[in-house]
Design a protein that fits this description.
heterodimer, A: mainly alpha, 3 helices, 0% strand, B: alpha+beta, Alpha-Beta Plaits, five-stranded antiparallel beta sheet, four-stranded antiparallel beta sheet
């Protein structure tokens, strides 16, 4: 029984780690992408960099993802 | 390949009589970027002014006809969307008698006259149709009145007014008009009631005011003959005739557009090429009988260009080749083998390298497809991607689409190889439906190992960038940048490596290396000091996305297979199941191809380039004829 609770907590913990990280990243990505679209509409050459900026914010979600994997497989 | 092409400066001095041939040859070769000269023009004379005016005039006329005809080409409806998608662009026109100033002039004279006549007829028909529609709208509310409208006129002592009133207000109107000497001719109506009001002229003003108060909508009495019903019938008939005439003209215009569009586009391109040649001559410096061209040329093209110029000028041109020296504005020209040229698209999208900087295209060509493959990791999606890439190369002409298609083709190869290695075909499709499973390792169940694998790949990638950065700084003898940008990372990595592989035995040595790294960052003039360690750590972890996207592709595919599989029990369920399987996999393919592309790009732009690449060069822009509708070898 104790093992089951432990497993449950691990899964919830992993969910919280990736969930909140992705939420924050999503909000940030919205702002970055909106600014990027603005930049591209004024200067088309900015397309590549704008895409990179929009994905820049995703790093936080990746951290959440790494933590989730560590919780599930390593701890 | 590793650096942009070496450039030279070229100066050509020749007699005016060779001018046209030299300019023409240079335009075809496209090897020189022209530089503006100081002593332009000779005593106010601009060479070829008359010809330039002629070409400009013709170009304007061609564009006018093109602008008018192009909407009709789409109206002609080239068939279904599928046909449009699968139809390759028409072959280029090769001097069909119109690609010369005189030929173009003749061609345009005939065509623009014909198009103008059709255009005028169309205009007349459209304005008449508008008038007919206006009459129809106006008499529509009066249909119940059985009165010849031509007789609705003011006389010496009486006035008449036509209009409509809301059915609810009709009783009120009658009540208000009781005090006046008026006659009301009317008919029943559901929402609005048509009215003809006749009265004494001396009461006209007061009657009009009363009518306005009640909301009477006046219909202007035009010179219409007959009752509203007769007028409507006559105008409806007229409308049908006019519409069919209009459609016939539109059809004729669509036919003309379909037949002539390719020729017109070719002519426009030819004229633009001619104009560019005239415009370029404004950059030359001139004497009474000679002219001088100056520009940049890739060193590899010098020999062939000089040979060509000597031939066309019969040896009468003086050509001086010089080093670029300390010029600040030297253009950057890629110098890559054709296999990796498509990846220049990705370098360009970030920034052109500086003239003296390393060109990262070959590195992108090496790593981008691998990253893409890891992120997509599915054999079936890889085959789909290869077909998509092949289609893009086959269907589209533009350089950008061709390059993109080739990049995707290279990426699809890694996707297929890795998909086969990890046993992923539409996710777990074969395992789920046929019980067949293959592959050496399933990242979904050993995500920790896969994560380690992704981070190791990332560290190799980052260290390659680091090594390039160090090499560049050494080459430029920029010791300050070497220490503050790269050395601290090297110390940090060696410290961490020792600790990881040799353990506590070397902990003092590791600590010293860490402290040295921090000390360098504390001394760094700009930046955020030791916090940069955090950003390096972040960059390494960022490669975890390789695994994240790979798992996302597989995860969504498995979900689609599960949902689809659940429905396969009955016949109706199976129909839905197949739709879900098809739609789900197409969606997964589309979203993850996009994701893999953007994230592979980002790993290069953000993590990799920050180690060594600055960019900011100006791309070489040669004096060259851009042809799409006319064949090379035409004029």
């Amino acid at each position: 029984m104790a093992t089951d609770i432990g497993l449950g907590l691990k899964i919830v913990g992993a969910g919280i780690a990736i969930g909140f990280a992705a939420l924050g990243s999503g909000i940030g990505q919205g702002t970055a992408a909106a600014a990027g679209i603005g930049a591209v509409s004024e200067k088309e050459e900015m397309m590549g960099k704008s895409l990179a900026f929009a994905t820049l914010v995703e790093t936080q979600a990746i951290y959440g993802f790494v933590i989730a994997i560590l919780i599930l497989f390593v701890i | 390949m590793f650096y942009p092409a070496k450039m030279k400066k070229i100066c050509v001095v020749a007699l005016d009589r060779y001018r046209d041939r030299i300019v023409e040859r240079l335009h075809v070769l496209g090897t020189i970027e022209l530089l503006e000269q100081e002593n332009r023009g000779y005593e106010g004379r601009v060479y070829g002014e008359k010809g330039r005016e002629q070409v400009t005039g013709l170009l304007r006329r061609a564009e006018e006809v093109l602008d008018f005809l192009s909407p009709f080409e789409t109206v002609a409806g080239k068939g279904s969307i599928l046909k449009m998608l699968l139809e390759r662009p028409a072959p280029p026109v090769f001097d069909s008698g119109i690609l010369s100033v005189a030929g173009g002039n003749n061609y345009l004279r005939g065509l623009s006259g014909r198009v103008r006549r059709l255009r005028e007829r169309l205009g007349r028909l459209e304005s008449e149709l508008e008038r007919v529609d206006l009459v129809l709208t106006e008499v529509q509310g009066l249909l119940g009145l059985d009165v010849d409208l031509s007789r609705v006129r003011d006389t010496e002592h009486t006035f008449s007014v036509l209009g409509r009133v809301l059915a609810d207000s009709f009783e009120e109107l009658k009540k208000q008009l009781v005090t006046f000497d008026v006659t009301i001719v009317t008919d029943v109506g559901e929402e609005e009631i048509p009215l003809l009001i006749l009265g004494l002229k001396k009461q006209k003003e007061e009657v009009t005011k009363t009518l306005e108060k009640i909301g009477f909508k006046k219909v202007p009495a035009r010179s219409l003959k007959g009752t509203p019903k007769e007028i409507t019938a006559k105008n409806l008939e007229r409308r049908t005739t006019l519409t069919s005439e209009k459609n016939a003209i539109k059809k004729e215009l669509a036919k003309t557009a379909e037949k002539e569009m390719q020729n017109l586009l070719a002519l426009r391109e030819y004229l633009e090429i001619q104009l560019e040649k005239y415009e370029a001559q404004r950059l030359f410096s001139e004497t009474k009988r000679t002219f001088t061209i100056e520009g940049y040329i890739p060193a590899k093209k010098v020999e062939s260009t000089v040979k060509e110029l000597k031939t066309v000028s019969e040896g009468h041109a003086t050509i001086i080749i010089d080093e670029t020296g300390a010029d600040k504005n030297i253009p950057v020209h890629f110098d890559n083998p054709s296999l990796i040229q498509p990846f220049q698209l990705l370098t360009r999208a970030y920034a052109m390298p500086k003239y003296t900087e390393v060109d990262p295209t070959w590195l992108i060509a090496l790593w981008f497809p691998l990253f893409f493959g890891i992120m997509l990791t599915d054999m079936a999606y890889g085959i789909g991607l290869f077909l998509l890439a092949w289609f893009m190369i086959w269907r589209f002409e533009s350089q950008g689409m061709q390059d993109l298609g080739k990049i995707l083709a290279f990426s699809s190869i890694w996707t297929i190889i890795l998909g086969a290695t990890f046993g992923s075909v539409f996710g777990n499709f074969f395992q789920s439906f046929f019980g067949i499973s293959f592959g050496v390792f399933d990242p979904l169940f050993r995500a920790d190992l896969a994560l380690l694998f992704a981070i190791i790949i990332g560290l190799i990638h980052l260290n390659l960038g680091l090594a390039l950065g160090i090499k560049e700084k050494l080459r430029k003898r920029d010791q300050k940048a070497l220490v503050f940008e790269h050395l601290w990372i090297v110390l940090l990595e060696i410290g961490a490596g020792l600790l990881l592989f040799l353990g506590r035995r070397v902990s003092i040595l590791s600590a010293i290396l860490f402290l040295a790294s921090i000390a360098i960052l504390l001394k760094k003039p700009e930046g955020v000091g030791p916090l940069e360690i955090n950003s390096f750590f972040g960059s390494s972890l960022s490669y975890a996305r390789l695994l994240a996207l790979s798992l996302a592709t597989t995860g969504i595919a498995i979900a689609v297979n599960e949902i689809g599989g659940m429905l396969l029990g009955s016949f109706v369920g199976a129909l839905f199941g197949v739709v879900i399987l098809l739609g789900g996999h197409i969606f997964n393919f589309a979203i993850n191809v996009f994701g893999a592309f953007v994230h592979s790009m980002r790993l290069h732009y953000v993590e990799f380039f920050s180690m060594f690449y600055e960019g900011g060069g100006r791309e070489f822009s040669p004096f060259k004829a851009k042809r799409r509708y006319t064949k090379k070898g035409g004029n």
